[in-house]
Amino acid sequence: MDPVYILPIEILNEIFILLPQDTKITLYLDVSKLWRETILKCPNVWREIEIQQDYRVIKSCYDIGFHVKHITINSTFEEVCFSAIQQLKEGHFKQIQSLKITVPEIENMKRYLQLTTTALYQIRDTLTSFTIDTSKTGKYISIADILSACNNLIELDYSTTTRLSKRRTINNYFTQYQEIPHHHHCLLNLQLKAPFINRHDIDPLLEQCTELRRLVMNGCTTSVLDTIVNKQQQLSETPLNLEILGYNANSKSMAVPQLPKETMTMIRKGKEKKIRGLRILFTNSNGQPVHTQRMLPLLYQNRETLIYIMAHLSPLDQSELVQLYTLYPNFEFPNISRFTLWSVTGIQEFMLQAIRNSTRLSVLDIIHAYDIDGVLKELMTMPPLKHLTILYSTASIPETSNDDPFETTVATTSLISLFKRYVYLSSSSPSAFYSSSSPSSSSASFSSFSSISSTKTITTATMLPGPSRQFVSTTPSLSLKSITLGKFNTVSDRELSILGNIKTLEQITLLDLNNVTTNGIKNLINKMGNQLKYVRLSRMESVTDDILFNLGDMNGLIRIALDYLPKMTNRVMTFDKKSSKSNEHDTTITTKNYSFQPYYYPNEKKDDIATTAPMFTKCVQNVECQNLQVAIDTATDGINEMFDNLMSLLDVRAATLGLKNQVNKGLEDGYRMIDYSPTTPAGYLRCASLFILDNKYNAAMEICKQGMNALSFENDDNEEENGKKHEKYREAQKVLDEKYNEAKTLENQGRVDFITRLPSDIICQILDYLPFSALLETLNVSKVWRDYVTVYPKIWSNMKLTTCPDEKTDMIGRVLSRQHHFSHHVQHLSADELSEDETYDLLIELIYGTYSKLESLDFWSSDMDDGYDECVGVLSRVKTTLKSLRFSLKASNNPLPLGSILAECDNLKTFDYLQSCTVTEEALDGIPTTPINSLNDLTLACASLPTSQLERILKCCPRVLQLSCMNCDTSAFEVVEKLCPYLYSFGLNASPYELSDDDKQSLLNNIDDQQTNSSFGIHHIYFDVRAAWLSVDDHDESLIRILKNNANVLETAKMRFGGFIDDDENQGSRWQNLGTIVTPHLRSLTLNFNLTMSSVISTFLSNCPALEILLFGPGIEFIPSGVFQAASRLSMLKELTIYLANELSDHGLSLLFKKISNQEERNQHEGFNNFQKFKLEHCFSELSKETAHSLAKIPSLQEIYFDGAYMTQDTAESFAWTLAHQHGDYSSSFHTITLISMDCVTDQVLRYLNDIPSLRTIKLSHLRNITLEGLKCLQSNTRISLDFTPHSFQKK
């Protein structure tokens, strides 16, 4: 019979409340009209709802919404979240009091913002608590919008990943809703989590939310503390009522206390007695200490009212400590009841003296005590505590040989003295102990004791032994009840023995005590007996099963917490059953351990199996009725209680978990079935079915094979038994074979081998995109794949051996084992960061491999110390085809045998040698005496290359076209000039100009044709004369001679004489002859110089009539006006770049632009090249408006590149306006502008740029003062290609 017909509505209400939400929705929508009407009559059933991925909840909101008071919207789908908020907007929730929203990733932000604001306004009359987390989207509704819409809001929890200052502030939210009063009187509890919360964010909140009592902030700066102090000091009509403050208090274990519900009710009714000042203060600062000088004013100002403090403050030196005593006299907390202190240098002494005389302090937490002895001695002088915690102390164990814990000796530690003190306080016998130095003090103490003992609340009083100076009641309730000791090296068995004699102690927590033995813990437990109610043991190797079994015999124990105990085994879980029979209390056990997992235990009544079948049937019925969670819960309960029919329950739970898309959990039960009964096919079949459900057909076939192998057996002598086993296993293997074929059929249905169907050129293009490691795997797919893949030479032409460090050995091994398939195709081989063994293995395989087409060999940052002989052997095998060779060896290797290597490589064209060592005479042994005429590109980068060795190398390379020498001495210039007659590109202590292969071939053809015309000579020269290995006087003449001899053919030059670093005052005179050199064909010039060389550089620029590209930098200290004046005479100049200049003459740059502008008006008619591009990167000098205008007025300007350029906002806007309106007839040439890291760029600048008709490309990045609204005009302009980074802009 239907229960809704016979049960009263009150009973049904209690039943429905216990059901999970998805079951209630199913009963409401799918059973019958009667059930729907009955559930609607139970208002408490729908008191709380959570909207995740189930649309059925949203469909039911029209009927159940009237009963809902608490809603949680926590969906990862945008549309589900949107539909849920839409229901709020439509007014279906008339009694909602609490709303929690976790905003998913959203694309259309504007639509959500309007919808959420309207929905909050719809429920404003009843909503009192609102929690919103926008961490996933980073941008959403602001605090101003929330407070504007919700005038009755009491609690607000707001989390975001963007700064609050980027939104509309609290000051302007009243303009949105004029009916909202000037102050938000209802908000009592505010919790914020955002990056860089500052005083500008908090000040308006405190000004408008006058009744705010609890404020918790995560991600705030110290300026917030100053704001609160200033607000408390102001005497205005709206004083600060703040009682609880959390400053970056993000600790989960020490959460900031909440306002009691009774207190909030009294505040709303106006019956609360207001206390001006903070009562609770939490500081954690994300694990970092708060600056003490910024926090102390707040502590001092609220010292009379504070009752709970968690202070994580920065250390102080002795001078700062003395200063604090002067600035803050009478620094005490008379009403403090709980104090948590990170005890660091200076702070420990200052804070402990502030709580020394507090009679209300009952809880003290000391963390990271640097002077634990000082802390313990201070505790001896203070009133007794109820709860004490000492964590992370670095004290050492005192040496003592006394075994009696109560015998006072000289070696007694402060900790033992403290524990003894609490032993005396907890004594039930009312005895007094006197410790006084004078008779007067003794008599005074006796009279005080008499007066105290006459009261009703305190029965006895005791003068404490040791350094204590006052009487304290010995009533047991006033002694220690809870203690926590963690990472405290002072604690040993002796201390625990004394601790066990404290009669009032009920809770003990021991964390990571390395000096405590198993016997010490046993002794503690035996002494405490049934008085112990709570025990926590964590990270202690001395805790064994025997200790935990002793805990099971304690009748008063209520809870045990066990964390990460390596010596605890699974046997201890049976203690739960044993203790539950004898304990009069229900004991709760929580475990968290890395070394074990709890097992299920069989029922002791093995004959009681009757309950299994009904439970199994009930689970199956729930599955068929789609009550999946109920089926899982029922099966789980049965597994815990019974073991005999465990296989059937595991099977049904695994199947049900698979239906709920929890395949991994279902597989755990399936594998457990296999472990319990490996010769039964049920576990294999269930796992295979789950794999098929998860589309993992190969895994399903593997588990079926495993099952068929497990069901095979060996014949024995009993033929009858063999027949039964054959029949049994034959049926089981048949079922597994059917499941295997099912998985294989499904696998083949979705498999198409594209490599046999696509054209060969398409296959080659596809495979060409694969990395080399993936290409290796294609060889293992099948023989068909291997035959197809190995016939394409292009995809194997480049072999690069480089992987993660943990995969290198496997990578090299796989390559070497398969090289015979593709080695004949390899043309370029690169080995990066190989170890010595890997390099050796590779060289051996190269010797015996068939690398018949190898043209390029590159060892980059590899270890080849013991493989030089093998390397020479490899080169002898591939010397006929090898054209390029590069060695970049580790500094620990011996010098490379250059002589032997060059002797083997008679066809080499390119040779690069990089190693941080000195080239010795021995390294050049065997160098060929006959020239290597093919070698035309040579790089020598060593720690030291003597001139004698360089001369021997260059003698065998007479046709070098491109040469780079690093770390050479001064005589190397003459050697290069004498031995390299065909040198075309030269780099001295700098990388040279890279010649293309076509250029090299053309030059070699000229050499072969015996041409001696102007094509010979150094056309590109790059040098750096700042280097420490160059002398002051010797090399100048040689370099000047090289420049003079090649001045007529020089095309590009990079000259670095000195910038920020080199301040040689004599450089100008040393390089004076540079101004006499005339370079008629120089096209590109890069200059780096200091101020003393300005006149020389100006003269040199005047002698470069064909210069087109000029770059200043990087690292120039100052570019004077004279240099710009010389540059203004360059009639062919097309491009000017200023990179990383500390300062420049703005007036000189302005005159340069003006002269270029005037000159180009004539050049337009005379046919000269025009100035086209200006780049300014990271220049620390501000551009004036005049200079910007002069640049914008250049008629032929085509491209501007600004990166980190400094100018005012007015200058930037005027510059953009000039570009748009002042180009005259030549404005059509300007087409590209790049703006990076410029705070002066605003939306108005973008609007002006949009008006330039010829503009085609705009690149924007890291511009903080433009918004997406400012970009709309550019995005709507179809002729402009816009490249920008959205996250670097402000959003509106």
Automatic annotation (TrEMBL):
Top-level taxon of the source organism: Eukaryota
InterPro entries reported in the protein's UniProt record: F-box-like_dom_sf, F-box_dom, Leu-rich_rpt_Cys-con_subtyp, LRR_dom_sf
Alphabetized SUPFAM superfamilies for the sequence: F-box domain, RNI-like
Domain F-box: 752-799
GO cellular component: SCF ubiquitin ligase complex
One GO BP: SCF-dependent proteasomal ubiquitin-dependent protein catabolic process
Full protein name: F-box domain-containing protein
Organism: Circinella minor
